[in-house]
Design a protein that fits this description.
- The chain has two domains: 6-175, TIM Barrel (Alpha-Beta Barrel); 185-261, no CATH class.
- 49% of the residues lie in helices and 6% in strands.
- The chain is built from 13 helices and four strands.
- The chain is globular.
- The protein binds iron/sulfur cluster (2 copies).
- The site of one iron/sulfur cluster has 16 residues, from helix 12 and helix 13.
- The site of one iron/sulfur cluster has 13 residues, from helix 9 and helix 10.
Length: 265
């Protein structure tokens, strides 16, 4: 059951999607029924109470979102465990943000001399009881080898490593970046009427915030908006916000992007 939140759940219930899946399982056409989840802990509690037959829950879980008010990784995890469900982890490296850390945070993890930035993020997620699998997107052989070696001889984070990722979280919070994970639902499931490359713009904005480089101005002007809409072209229809699993205030954030990159216009 893909991307369950309060509104999708309502829709799935209305068309008896859960009942249909359980019937197909009885017929042997489906082996297991699980759901991926993007909403508050109370919504997961409601789903698992109404449908205790659900076997596994996939949640967003990483050390930045652990106590975040909007993602609620910790609370959502606790609800799944209360219902005795095993979990699958998505976004363990938060769309790559926990790999490309700011220098101060990277140096801190490097000083522990126990693996790559990604390995601490993957191990953080896998350190919690009931985590059946940690799903991490990989784009080259090096990343795959790093992930395999991290999990092959898995060791949970030690107390001092937990302290270190807590400090990384504090460093990260000070940067005030946009917590977009790059899932692209806002462009692929929504079809923005102004063809705005929302997630690429947020990534560009974050890089400017972290590295203060002119390169991002060039990228915004000559790549992101050459054949696509500008941030200021947004007509505030709200379609993107309805599908964003991170519940980002995209329309407001695009105003910030326009203020940063369209100053001279
Ligand atoms: S609110 Fe703006 S960015 Fe979002 S879909 Fe509508 S036009 Fe596109
Ligand atoms: S849907 Fe939200 S989190 Fe996903 S890419 Fe778009 S803005 Fe980012």
């Amino acid at each position: 059951m893909h991307s369950q939140n309060a509104s999708n759940f309502k829709h799935f219930k209305a068309c008896r999607a859960y009942e249909t899946a359980f019937e197909l399982k009885k017929e042997g056409k489906i082996r297991h029924v699980g759901l991926s989840f993007h909403d508050k802990a109370t919504v997961l509690d409601q789903i698992l109470t109404e449908y205790p037959e659900i076997e596994i829950v996939q949640i967003q879980f990483n050390y930045i979102d652990y106590e975040d008010d909007s993602v609620q990784s910790k609370k959502v995890y606790e609800v799944a465990r209360k219902h005795n469900k095993p979990l699958l982890v998505m976004e363990p490296v938060k769309g790559g943000h926990l790999v490309n850390l700011p220098d101060e945070a990277s140096e801190l993890l490097k000083s522990l001399k126990n693996g790559s930035n990604a390995s601490y993020a993957v191990r953080f997620a896998a350190s919690f009881e009931g985590m059946e699998m940690v799903l991490s997107g990989m784009s080259n052989m090096e990343q795959m080898e790093d992930n395999i070696s991290t999990m092959k001889d898995f060791k949970p984070l030690t107390g001092s490593e937990f302290d270190a990722v807590r400090k990384v979280k504090e460093i990260y919070a000070k940067l005030n970046t946009i917590p977009c994970t790059g899932c692209r639902y806002c462009v692929e499931e929504n079809h923005c009427p102004r063809d705005i490359l929302i997630s690429d713009m947020f990534s560009c904005m974050n890089k400017k915030q972290i590295f203060h480089s002119w390169n991002e101005d060039y990228y915004y002007e000559d790549v992101l908006t050459a054949d696509h809409g500008k941030a200021s072209d947004c007509i505030s229809c709200g379609g993107c916000e309805r599908v964003c699993p991170q519940h980002l205030p995209i329309r407001k954030l695009l105003k910030d992007v326009a203020a940063e990159f369209e100053k001279g216009e």
